[in-house]
Amino acid sequence: MCELFGYSSSKPFAVNDYLKDFYSHCNCHPHGWGLALLDSQNYSIYKEPINARRSLKLKKILDNPIMNKNVFAHIRFATIGNLTLSNCHPFYKKDDSGRMWTLIHNGTIFDSSDLCKYAMVQEGTTDSERILLYIVDEINKREYEKGESLSIKERFNLISNLVNNLSFNNKLDLMLFDGEYFYVHMNCKDSLHYLKSDSSIMFSTKPLNNGHWEDVPLNTLLCYKDGNLVFKSKPHNNEYIETPEQSIFIKKFLKSLDNVSEGEYVW
Fold first, then answer.
1. Domain count of the chain?
2. Would you call 48 helix, strand, or coil by DSSP?
3. Domain CATH for 224
4. Is the per-residue pLDDT at 250 higher than 90?
5. How is residue 27 annotated by DSSP?
6. Is residue 261 situated within a structural domain?
7. Which domain holds residue 91?
8. What does the alpha-carbon distance between residue 192 and residue 194 come to, in Å, rounded to a whole number?
9. What's the pTM?
10. pLDDT in tens, 3-16
11. Fewest CB within a 10 Å sphere: which of 13, 80, 97, 253?
12. 120-155: per-residue pLDDT in tens?
């Protein structure tokens, strides 16, 4: 499936070498790439529905130091949604209070009635975009009911409940940023790792470069700010293990896509 990269730190740090290593996996994930610089003074989203190795835009970005406190990156292996810009990660959406939410996802939502209605209003056709629309919609509902913005603890508890429900029978490795806090969830063993330092934490589907990478806790929502853990949920029981039926579904979808060739390095 897809691969995810995330970085949260108390101070800007050039992550170019890690990103180059991450994007080097793109021939196994050739259906698109994305990059999100998430600092409030430098919020930018870049993405294309092509193999990252073929992207002159990405080469230009990586040729200059990426000095940010919060970063997302994604390379796509499509399981739902055709190869279009609107189906590339990251996805982003403002809530009614003006907070910008950004999401990247590795996995497939095979079964969730809560997401069905968003198929009529989303820009693309992916289940991942519907996850973000659902989360923002629920945040808006709770804040309308309360009559004011939710506290970070209330936001965390709400997102934890939503993630627990969505992870049932579905693969839900994701990273989410609300403009201030960085959320991480994994429910498939050995599919997300982290590298911690004194002032930062880095996440990647596969360990990158050197360093002591560890497994992200399974079935647990984590919340970070400036590289430090703020909240950690109790583990749920929805570990994802792919069924034969799900494997057949994914293989049929991949056959429906146009052939995507491997990319030649341009960076």
1. 1
2. strand
3. 3.60.20.10
4. no
5. G
6. no
7. 3-256
8. 7
9. 0.93
10. 999 999 999 999 99
11. 97
12. 999 999 999 999 999 999 999 999 999 999 999 999
